[in-house]
C-alpha cells in the first residue's frame, strides 16, 4: 500500500472486501442493464490519483463511471500501485467519480466521450471530518502473506524504544535472538540476514552482534522468507530475514530525534533526517551509542575416572565487563532522472571502540583430595572497528505495468584491530601443584572486503504473468593476522609463539544466474524459479610450522592452501491459493546451501579461558538442504490467524562437537560435518484486536530434529524436540498512556551432546505522547525476571559439564524520548515503492 498510514490493517481489509463487492455489483448491473449498442467502439479514460498534500500515489482509489442517459449503465475500476487507472467505455456522456476512503471525492459531470480522455493528475485531499479520527499510525505489528514470504510491518513496539534491531527482531514471530545475539529462524541458526534485500555492512558481514548497535526505530518492516524464491541468494538453510529500513518520502524537510538513557549504563542519540524535492531525496540516519553490558556465567566440568586428566573437577566462575562506544551513519540521495528512472547512492559508516574485561576464577580439585588450586585469569581486550559501505542503485521502469530493469553495485570494507593482554595469578595452592603461569599479549587484525554486482530484469506478459531473470556476484576476501607473545618460564620475557601465530587469507566468491516465472490462474498463483550458483572457497594459511607439524599440534589434518569449487542448481516452487478474500493456503519448496564462514574454517584456536578453546575446521564442506513449507492464513474483522507446517532435510549439516584434548584439561569445541539433519515443525500465530484499547499478539513454534552421523569413531545420533512461544499485549490507558507487555518462553531441548534448559523472559514498557503529540516519552524494562540465561548440560566420553551463561546480566531500564518535527503522528512515512523490495512479486 502506498501510504498505509491512511488505514489500519482491519480497515484496509474491510475496504478491499467492500470494493470487490461493489465492483461485482457494477459488473452485474452492466451485464444485465446494457442493451445492444449502436456504436461498439471503445474509448479509454485514463488518469493518475495522488494525495494532495504528500503528492504520492493513492493505490486502490475507486473510479466510478455512470452513463448520464442510463444510470444503470455502470463501469469502473481501481488505481494501481502508481495511482494510475485505465478504463474502456463506449461512446456516450458520463459522470466520473473518483473516491478514496477518508478523502474528499472528486466528480467530473457530463463528460462527452467520443475519443480517448486523459484526466491527468487528480489530487485528493483528506476529508475534514477524517482529519483527526480515521488516520492513525499502525500500533502493532501486522502481517501480510506473499508467495515466498511473510511481511511483518513493525508497529509502535514500546518494549524496543531506545533498543536495537536485535531487540526488535526478537518480537517477530518465528524469530529468536539468543543471549549471545545469535539469530535463529524456527530454531535454526543458519539464517541469511539482508538489509533492504542485499548483504550489508549494517549486518556486520554475517556477525549478527552488529545488529545490537543499530537503533530499532530504523526498521520499517521485516520480511521472514522461509521459502525464498530463485531471486535470492541460496545461502541460509533456515531461510532469510530481510530487514527493510525506513525511507521517508514526505516533501520538504522532516525527521525525528531519539534520545535514550538507561541502566546498566546505556545512552544514545539517533537522528533521522529527510529532505525531499520533486527532483531528489536526501536522507540520513545518524546515531551514537554508549553502553555497558555486564555478563558472565560458570562452567562446572567433572572428569570421569578413566580420563587422562590431572584433575577430577574444574569449576570456572566468569565475569565480563563490556564498555562499548559506537557511531553509525547512513547518508544517501535518490535522484529522479525522469518519471521512469532514478539512481540512488548511499554511504554507510560504523565505528566502534570497545573494551571487554573478562575475569575467570577457577577452582581445581584433585580426585579424593578436594580443592588443590585456586587461580584467577584476567583478560583485557580492546577493539577498534571501522566499517563502511558504498552502494549505488539504478532503476528504470519501461512502463507502468512492471517492466523494469534494476542494477546494483556495492562495496564494503571492514577493518578490526584487537589488542589483548592476559594475566593469571595463583590465589591459593594447598595441593602444591606445579602450575605454569604465563602472561600473554595478542595482536589480531582483520580486514574484510566485499563486492556485490547485481542486475535484475522483470518482464510482465500481462496483468497476471511475469518473467524475471538476473545475475548476482558476491566477491569476499578476509585476511586475519594473529600474533601471540607468551611469557617465557625461564626468563619472564614475552616471546613469539610460532605454533599459534598465523596469517589466514580466506576468499569466498559466489556467481549466480537465475530465472523465474510467475502467473495467476483463477484463485491459484505460482512462482517457479531456478538458480545456478558456483561457490568458490579458497584459503591460504601462512605459519611458521609445516603441514605435518600443524597436524601434530592441532590433532587434525590441515590443508594450508586449498581451493574448492561447488556448482549447484537450486530450484524453487511457491504457490498460493486464495480460498476467499481473507483466506489463503501457501505451499513452498526450495533447495538451499550453508557455506562455512571464515572463523568456522580457521584451524587456529581462540581461547575463552585456559581450559576452553574454539577451533575452526578447514575440512568443512558446505551443507545442502531441501525444505517444504505448507501455510494457512485466515483473517476476520478483529483476528488474523497464520499457521504452517514444515520439513527440511539437510546433508553434511554443521554441528559443534566438544571433546577433551588428550592428556590435558582443555575442552575443545570444533565444527564438523555430520551426515544428515531432519527438521520437522509447526507454527501458529494470532493477531487479535478485540477493542480499540486492547491489542494481543501471540505465536507458538514447535519443532523436532533428528541428527545422524559420527566423528572420530563416535556416534552422534540424536533426536531433539523443543518449542518456543511469545505473547504480547498492549493496553491503552487514560491520559494517553500505553502499556505493553512482552513474554517469551523457550522450551528445554535435547542437544547432540546433552541438554539445554528452557527459560522465560518478560519485558514491560509504558509510553505517553507529549508536546501536542509531537513527542513520545517511553519507559521500558527488559528481562524483568533476570532469567534470560543459557543453562546446559554436556556429556562426552571423558567428562560431564554443567554451564550457565548470561550475555547481559540484570534488568535493563531505559527511558526514551522521540521528538518528531514536520511530521504528524497520524501520518506514518510512506514505506517506499513496493517494487523496490517486494522482490519476485507479480
Automatic annotation (TrEMBL):
Gene Ontology cellular-component annotations: cell outer membrane
Membrane topology: Multi-pass membrane protein
Location, primary (coarse class): membrane
Residues covered by the TonB-dependent receptor plug domain: 162-240
Key words, A-Z: Cell outer membrane, Membrane, Receptor, Transmembrane, Transmembrane beta strand, Transport
Occurrences of domain Outer membrane protein beta-barrel (ranges): 397-819
Subcellular location: Cell outer membrane
Transmembrane segments: none
InterPro entries the UniProt entry points to: Beta-barrel_TonB_sf (IPR036942), CarboxyPept-like_regulatory (IPR008969), OMP_b-brl_3 (IPR041700), Plug_dom (IPR012910), Plug_dom_sf (IPR037066), TonB-dep_rcpt-like (IPR039426)
Family, similarity comment: Belongs to the TonB-dependent receptor family.
Name under which the protein is recorded: TonB-dependent receptor
Amino acid at each position: 500500500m502506498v501510504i498505509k498510514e491512511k488505514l489500519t490493517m482491519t480497515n484496509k481489509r474491510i475496504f478491499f472486501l467492500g470494493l470487490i463487492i461493489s465492483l461485482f455489483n457494477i459488473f452485474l448491473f452492466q451485464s444485465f442493464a446494457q442493451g445492444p449498442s449502436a456504436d461498439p467502439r471503445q474509448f479509454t479514460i485514463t488518469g493518475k490519483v495522488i494525495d494532495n498534500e504528500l503528492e504520492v500515489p493513492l493505490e486502490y482509489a475507486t473510479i466510478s463511471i455512470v452513463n448520464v442517459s442510463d444510470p444503470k449503465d455502470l463501469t469502473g475500476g481501481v488505481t494501481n500501485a502508481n495511482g494510475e487507472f485505465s478504463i474502456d467505455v463506449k461512446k456516450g456522456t458520463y459522470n466520473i467519480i473518483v473516491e478514496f476512503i477518508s478523502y474528499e471525492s472528486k466528480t467530473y459531470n457530463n463528460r462527452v466521450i467520443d475519443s480517448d480522455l486523459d484526466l491527468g493528475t487528480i489530487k485528493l485531499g483528506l476529508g475534514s471530518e477524517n482529519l483527526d479520527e480515521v488516520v492513525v499510525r499502525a500500533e502493532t505489528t501486522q502481517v501480510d502473506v506473499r508467495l515466498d514470504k511473510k511481511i511483518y510491518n513493525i508497529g509502535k513496539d514500546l518494549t524496543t524504544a531506545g533498543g536495537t534491531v536485535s531487540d526488535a527482531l526478537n518480537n517477530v514471530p518465528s524469530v529468536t535472538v539468543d543471549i549471545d545475539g545469535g539469530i535463529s529462524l524456527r530454531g535454526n541458526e543458519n539464517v541469511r540476514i539482508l538489509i533492504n534485500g542485499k548483504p550489508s555492512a549494517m549486518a556486520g558481514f554475517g556477525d549478527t552482534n552488529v545488529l545490537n548497535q543499530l537503533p530499532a526505530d530504523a526498521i520499517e518492516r521485516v520480511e521472514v522468507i522461509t521459502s525464498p524464491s530463485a531471486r535470492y541468494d541460496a545461502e541460509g538453510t533456515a531461510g532469510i530475514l530481510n530487514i527493510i529500513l525506513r525511507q521517508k518520502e514526505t516533501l520538504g524537510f522532516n525527521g525525528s530525534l531519539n534520545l535514550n538513557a538507561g541502566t546498566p549504563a546505556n545512552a544514545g542519540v539517533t537522528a533521522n533526517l529527510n529532505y525531499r524535492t520533486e527532483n531528489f531525496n536526501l536522507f540520513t540516519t545518524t546515531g551514537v551509542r554508549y553502553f555497558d553490558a555486564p555478563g558472565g556465567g560458570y562452567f562446572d566440568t567433572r572428569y570421569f575416572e578413566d580420563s587422562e586428566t590431572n584433575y577430577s573437577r574444574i569449576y570456572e566462575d566468569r565475569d565480563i565487563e563490556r564498555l562499548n562506544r559506537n557511531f553509525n551513519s547512513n547518508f544517501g540521495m535518490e535522484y529522479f532522472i525522469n518519471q521512469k528512472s532514478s539512481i540512488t547512492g548511499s554511504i554507510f559508516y560504523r565505528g566502534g571502540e570497545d573494551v571487554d574485561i573478562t575475569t575467570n576464577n577457577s577452582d581445581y580439585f584433585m580426585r579424593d583430595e578436594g580443592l588443590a588450586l585456586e587461580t584467577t585469569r584476567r583478560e583485557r581486550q580492546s577493539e577498534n572497528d571501522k566499517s563502511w559501505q558504498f552502494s549505488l542503485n539504478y532503476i528504470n521502469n519501461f512502463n507502468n505495468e512492471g517492466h523494469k530493469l534494476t542494477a546494483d553495485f556495492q562495496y564494503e570494507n571492514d577493518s578490526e584491530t584487537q589488542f589483548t593482554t592476559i594475566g593469571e595469578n595463583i590465589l591459593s595452592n594447598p595441593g602444591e601443584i606445579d602450575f605454569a603461569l604465563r602472561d600473554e599479549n595478542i595482536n589480531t587484525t582483520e580486514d574484510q572486503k566485499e563486492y556485490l554486482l547485481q542486475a535484475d530484469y522483470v518482464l510482465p506478459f500481462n496483468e497476471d504473468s511475469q518473467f524475471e531473470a538476473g545475475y548476482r556476484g558476491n566477491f569476499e576476501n578476509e585476511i586475519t593476522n594473529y600474533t601471540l607473545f607468551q611469557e617465557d618460564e625461564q626468563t619472564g620475557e614475552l616471546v613469539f609463539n610460532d605454533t599459534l601465530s598465523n596469517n589466514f587469507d580466506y576468499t569466498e566468491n559466489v556467481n549466480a544466474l537465475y530465472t523465474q516465472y510467475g502467473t495467476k490462474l483463477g484463485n491459484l498463483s505460482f512462482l517457479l524459479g531456478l538458480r545456478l550458483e558456483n561457490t568458490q572457497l579458497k584459503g591460504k594459511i601462512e605459519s611458521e610450522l609445516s603441514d605435518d607439524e600443524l597436524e601434530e599440534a592441532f590433532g587434525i589434518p590441515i590443508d594450508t592452501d586449498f581451493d574448492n569449487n561447488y556448482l549447484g542448481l537450486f530450484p524453487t516452487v511457491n504457490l498460493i491459493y486464495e480460498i476467499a478474500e481473507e483466506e489463503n493456503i501457501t505451499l513452498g519448496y526450495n533447495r538451499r546451501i550453508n557455506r562455512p564462514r571464515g572463523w568456522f574454517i580457521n584451524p587456529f584456536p581462540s581461547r575463552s579461558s585456559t581450559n576452553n578453546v574454539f577451533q575452526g575446521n578447514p575440512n568443512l564442506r558446505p551443507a545442502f538442504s531441501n525444505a517444504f513449507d505448507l501455510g494457512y492464513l485466515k483473517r476476520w474483522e478483529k483476528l488474523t490467524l497464520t499457521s504452517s507446517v514444515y520439513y527440511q532435510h539437510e546433508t553434511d549439516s554443521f554441528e559443534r562437537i566438544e571433546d577433551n584434548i588428550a592428556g590435558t584439561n582443555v575442552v575443545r569445541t570444533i565444527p564438523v560435518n555430520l551426515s544428515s539433519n531432519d527438521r520437522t515443525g509447526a507454527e501458529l500465530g494470532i493477531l487479535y484486536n478485540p477493542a480499540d484499547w486492547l491489542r494481543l499478539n501471540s505465536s507458538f513454534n514447535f519443532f523436532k530434529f533428528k541428527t545422524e552421523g559420527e566423528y572420530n569413531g563416535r556416534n552422534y545420533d540424536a533426536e531433539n524436540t523443543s518449542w518456543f512461544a511469545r505473547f504480547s499485549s498492549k493496553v491503552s490507558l487514560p491520559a494517553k498512556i500505553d502499556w505493553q507487555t512482552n513474554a517469551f518462553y523457550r522450551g528445554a531441548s535435547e542437544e547432540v551432546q546433552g541438554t539445554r534448559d528452557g527459560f522465560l523472559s518478560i519485558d514491560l514498557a509504558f509510553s505517553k505522547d507529549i508536546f501536542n503529540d509531537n513527542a513520545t516519552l517511553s519507559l521500558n524494562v527488559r528481562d524483568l525476571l533476570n532469567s534470560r540465561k543459557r543453562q546446559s548440560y554436556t556429556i562426552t566420553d571423558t567428562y560431564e559439564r554443567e554451564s550457565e551463561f548470561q550475555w547481559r546480566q540484570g534488568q535493563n531500564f531505559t527511558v526514551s524520548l522521540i521528538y518528531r518535527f514536520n511530521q504528524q503522528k497520524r501520518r506514518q512515512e510512506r514505506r517506499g515503492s513496493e517494487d523496490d523490495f517486494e522482490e519476485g512479486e507479480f
